[in-house]
């Protein structure tokens, strides 16, 4: 089974993936941030590095999905291939940080890749307001994230909400991170687990 967690930067995807992996014994596949060769450059000069970064993520996530399906295990994945294609790349294009030529090339490649993959059996969306995102980004203190602008997070949030509103690929569970502090309160994590159990039992 393939469970995936979607959400904006700082919404708590990695934390939740770790907690659920521990609780259920699922294998966790994390987003490749530590070894990503483009991330630092991207935050320093978004226009120059946007296409390179998005292609790197697309390749990395496509490989992850292929590995997940091959493994035959239940896997929890931190962020999906769809977020790059429907949120991050179009947002960079709309902000003038990715050229139309690069965006068209990227979209064509995603379209081809997506024809070879299955969507997750369950998508968990971590919905969070900008103040919550900023608070959590500051808490983890990654240097390259210090330059993220509020309007960038706000635009991403708008695109996330639009994508989730029209999500038809499979089962969807929305967690309101402004009110559910699963990383700090065991009772809140229990509530998330209860909701996941209800969804998973519906998958069999």
Description of the structure:
Strands 2-3-1-4-5 form a 5-stranded parallel beta sheet, with helices on both faces. The protein has 8 helices and 5 strands. It has 204 residues and is of the alpha/beta class. The chain has one domain: P-loop containing nucleotide triphosphate hydrolases (Rossmann fold). Helix 3 runs antiparallel to helix 4, helix 3 runs parallel beside helix 5 and helix 4 crosses helix 7 (150-165). The chain has helices at residues 13-24, 39-44, 46-71, 81-94, 100-114, 130-140, 150-165, 186-201; strands at residues 2-7, 27-29, 75-78, 122-127, 171-176.
Task: Tell me the layout of helices and strands.
Blueprint: E1 2-7, H1 13-24, E2 27-29, H2 39-44, H3 46-71, E3 75-78, H4 81-94, H5 100-114, E4 122-127, H6 130-140, H7 150-165, E5 171-176, H8 186-201
Parallel strand pairs: 1-3, 1-4, 2-3, 4-5
Helix pairs in contact: 3-4, 3-5, 4-5, 4-7
